[in-house]
Specification:
The complex is a heterodimer of chains A (291) and B (294). By secondary structure, chain A is mostly helical. Chain A is 77% helix and 3% strand. A two-stranded antiparallel ribbon of chain B has the order 1-2. The chains are: A mainly alpha (291), B mainly alpha (294).
Chain lengths: 291, 294
């Protein structure tokens, strides 16, 4: 294999990985902080994709600019959902284990509602549009411009969020909550508010990722679940609550996937990622980069 | 109870073929929900592997159905699913909470992909046609027997010391272990027992389709088992039966006509049950009774 092919695959893997990082970051924010394992995460991505599709094809809005609509809309929806579904359970003071399994069931309910809602609204036909598909030279390799743009945006949001966590007071509060909920409460962190906002921010990240995905691939109402599974693998690889770990593991998984698709004649992706997940769970239940 | 059993026994003689098929589907749902609740009800381990076990059973019938006389594929299907559950359980039952659920959820998808891979690589075809199917009435009695057996097992298990130990595991697993329960062995055994019934149901229902492919490993089956049991109330015996009859009827009638709207409604039902009916319909009935008697 020539060095230039390796380089092409490397860049392609990092582009895929950039999207995975953003999707996984959102999931990790919800799971790492609230122990809400949101299996409908990918469905929010799917809905984000359809919203961008509709805004672009029906009103001619630039797909990139739709992010300014889908992100905030998802954030608002997230605050509402948190209030409706989780706030009461948090107030009732359920045991963490019970809360975890109840919220898992709730997110399965959301999955059904969103997926079938999308089927009713947009049908199961493939939906797509072409945007910035012309090739662009990047670091000596040639890629469609939209892929580079999407990956750059995804990484920008991911890194921006990481900087936010590290440098601002609100970010410090979130990190404090992940470390020690009671301690954070003692120093005056409003747990319920931070929870609600983190849940909403996680949804917004998934939805924005969906807007970006819609520029690259055709949509069906079924694209969500594979992203959820990938995000889960990434989160578990990178360690629960470890945001930097999610970004790194996302890039890593993008690389592994790109290379394995290149060399395996058959699509073994589901089998590979599930095997990785199983091994990690059994050998290191706290994740590869976990504490 | 005896009256109901008798009615179910003579039912095929008076029902139209459509009604009999409906009854068959509901009885299979009862097996699914009751068997799911054997294990997941008391222990609170949320298993989403039912689709994998059901699919494994169905595939056994597809592969072996023509070669051996009828009730044998059902037994074989149950045995294969129980064996699968034994392996999965030994690996996964040390995971607690959401991890176990996620692990089991991926199982149906994994089984499907492994099977597609195997079929394309080794046998060169995907999917099988089912030949030499048993008569519909035979199927009805097979599934009726399974349902009766499942309910009986649930009752016996609940009254046995193991039943109490399972509840202990659901309450506080470490304490149960300290009190001398061999939790691992018990969990794996009951998980396999539950899977055996689900696999047998899959094997018995397979002849309903004339053609079977790896898509029979359907995650929807996993959800249906959970939703039926929780809707009825997973901690009682009657709960999963009630939930299965209720949702089984609803799905057979609505699924064909309003597929997406029905599944959307199913999601909404799940939200309502989790948020407002933690004890299920059976719990609601209990609350109503205790209030009216007070």
């Amino acid at each position: 294999m020539s060095p230039s092919v390796v380089f092409d695959l490397l860049v392609a893997g990092l582009i895929t990985g950039g999207l995975y990082a953003l999707v996984a970051l959102g999931l990790n924010l919800q799971y790492g902080l609230m122990r809400v394992l949101n299996v409908a995460h990918g469905e929010f991505l799917m809905v984000g994709g359809y919203l961008t599709y509709t805004l672009h094809t029906a009103w001619g809005v630039n797909p990139l600019l739709t992010v300014l609509v889908t992100g905030p809309a998802a954030f608002a929806a997230g605050l509402g959902l948190h209030r409706l579904l989780y706030a009461r359970m948090l107030r009732a003071g359920e045991s963490p284990e019970h809360f975890a399994s109840q919220s898992l069931l709730l997110s399965f309910g959301l999955l059904f509602i969103l997926q079938n809602g999308a089927l009713l609204l947009w049908s199961s036909d493939l939906r797509g549009y072409s945007y910035l598909a012309e090739p662009l030279r990047f670091l000596g390799a040639v890629f469609p411009a939209n892929r580079l743009l999407a990956a750059a945006l995804a990484l920008l949001v991911s890194i921006g969020f990481y900087v936010f966590l590290r440098t601002t007071l609100a970010g410090t509060a979130i990190r404090a909550l992940m470390e020690d909920q009671e301690g954070a409460q003692l120093v005056g962190v409003d747990v319920r508010r931070v929870h609600a906002r983190c849940f909403a921010a996680g949804l917004a990240m998934a939805t924005v990722a969906g807007s970006l995905v819609s520029m690259l691939f055709e949509l069906t109402p079924f694209i969500g679940l594979p992203y959820t599974v990938t995000a889960l693998v990434v989160v578990i690889l990178g360690g629960l609550g470890n945001m930097l770990g999610s970004v790194l593991a996302g890039l890593l998984l993008g690389l592994v996937e790109t290379f394995s698709v290149q060399f395996a004649t058959f699509d073994l992706r589901v089998i590979v990622s599930y095997t990785v997940l199983t091994l990690v769970l059994l050998v290191r239940p706290s994740g590869l980069l976990g504490r | 109870m005896a009256l109901l059993g008798l009615a179910l026994l003579v039912a095929p003689a008076v029902l139209t073929p459509y009604q009999r098929a409906l009854g068959l589907a509901i009885l299979a749902d009862v097996v699914l929900a009751v068997a799911w609740a054997f294990f997941s009800g008391p222990t609170r381990y949320l298993s989403l592997a039912s689709g994998a076990f059901f699919g494994a059973g169905a595939y056994v019938t597809a592969v072996a159905g023509g070669a051996v006389p009828w009730p044998l594929p059902v037994l074989l299907g149950g045995a294969v699913a129980a064996g699968l559950a034994g392996i999965v359980g030994a690996l996964a039952l040390r995971l607690r909470g959401p991890y176990f659920a996620v692990f089991t959820f991926g199982l149906a998808e994994l089984a499907k992909h492994v099977l597609i891979w195997y079929e394309t690589r080794v046998t060169g075809t995907i999917g099988r046609i089912l030949l030499a199917q048993p008569a519909p009435v035979t199927l009805y009695y097979t599934v009726l027997a399974l349902a009766g057996l499942a309910v009986t097992t649930a009752v016996l298990l609940r009254r046995s010391p193991w039943g109490a130990a399972l509840v202990g595991i659901g309450g506080d697993e470490e304490r149960a272990e300290t009190l001398g329960v061999n939790t691992t062995a018990l969990k794996v055994a009951v998980f396999a027992l539950s899977a055996g019934f689900i696999g047998a149901a899959g094997a018995a229902m397979a002849p309903r389709w004339t053609y079977l492919d790896p898509n029979v490993f359907n995650p929807l089956v996993s959800f249906q088992a959970v939703i039926m049991a929780l809707l009825g109330g997973a901690s009682t015996i009657a709960g999963p039966v009630v939930g299965a009859v209720f949702l089984g009827l609803a799905s057979e009638i609505l699924l064909v006509k309003f597929r997406y709207a029905y599944m959307l409604g199913l999601g909404a039902v799940l939200l309502v049950v989790v948020l407002a009916l933690p004890e299920g319909l059976a719990g609601l009935w209990g609350r109503y009774r205790s209030r009216s008697s007070a």
